[in-house]
Design a protein that fits this description.
- This protein is mainly alpha-helical and 248 residues long.
- 80% of the residues lie in helices and 0% in strands.
- The chain is built from ten helices and no strands.
- Helix 2 crosses helix 3, helix 4 packs antiparallel against helix 9 and helix 8 (194-208) packs across helix 9 (213-237).
- It is flat.
Length: 248
């Protein structure tokens, strides 16, 4: 906060900006590393209670001496990012504080809890609702002479690559509201291009999910619903000048 007061009172110069950026970056990295340490100890519990039993798998294997450790570290980093995200978002927000007026600071700071809540909701939806169905679909291609034996590294990578896109895509309402408040997006333009948006959503779902139709549809449908919610929020939060122009 002291650095913010200095920058707000004296304005930016190159050295102040670099020092301020370094300070925020260090804080974000420290938050991520500390959260990753907590994630390292939470990882075995998460794998057993959530990522295995919840989806109906009995167990995993590791194919090299270091694979189990490396997979746990990878999951710890993913958990660290999830746990530290509010602090990371705050540090990112603080970088732009000197360029915002008091009103902009208030409403952009208010967005941080919403961003984090939507991110968690997206991951919870992916792991709790979509992942079991996707795994049942994919493992259903086995048979009497083809049994699954999934390695811990491959499974952790699959879950992370499956869940994180859901968390990111669930930020759509925040992105639309923010761009609308800034005057970059207009709700009327979004409504006119709705069919193209739906097409792009299905393309993104195909890119972001594993290569099976179930995962793609299960990601695309919530995005379309979020898009419709975004339209409602955009109409409500659009700048006052645009509302007045439409009334006239």
């Amino acid at each position: 906060m002291k650095g913010e007061r200095i920058l707000l009172s004296q304005g930016f110069n190159v050295l102040d900006h670099l020092e301020y950026l370094r300070l925020r970056l260090i804080r974000a990295i420290l938050a991520f590393l500390l959260a990753s340490v907590a994630g390292f100890w939470l990882a075995p519990w998460l794998v057993q209670l959530v990522l295995l039993r919840h989806v109906g798998l009995d167990g995993l294997v590791f194919l090299s001496p270091a694979e189990a450790l490396l997979a746990r570290i990878k999951l710890a980093f993913a958990l660290g990012f999830v746990l530290a995200l509010p602090l990371i978002l705050y540090q990112l927000w603080a970088l732009f504080v000197p360029a915002m007026d008091q009103k902009q600071r208030r409403w952009t700071l208010f967005l941080i809890p919403g961003v984090y809540a939507l991110f968690l909701l997206g991951i919870a939806f992916a792991v709790g609702a979509v992942l079991p169905m996707a795994l049942r679909f994919l493992l259903g291609f086995g048979g009497e002479h083809l049994e699954h034996e999934i390695s811990i590294a491959n499974y952790i990578s699959f879950v992370i690559n499956f869940a994180l896109p859901f968390g990111i895509i669930f930020e759509l309402p925040v992105v639309v509201v923010g761009l609308t408040r800034l005057g970059i997006l207009r709700p009327a333009a979004l409504e006119r291009n709705r069919k193209y948006t739906v097409f792009v959503i299905f393309v993104l779902a195909a890119i972001l999910t594993p290569p099976d139709a179930v995962s793609q549809v299960m990601l695309a449908v919530p995005i379309i619903l979020l898009f419709e919610l975004s339209l409602l929020l955009a109409r409500w939060t659009k700048p006052r000048e645009e509302r007045q122009e439409r009334e006239v």
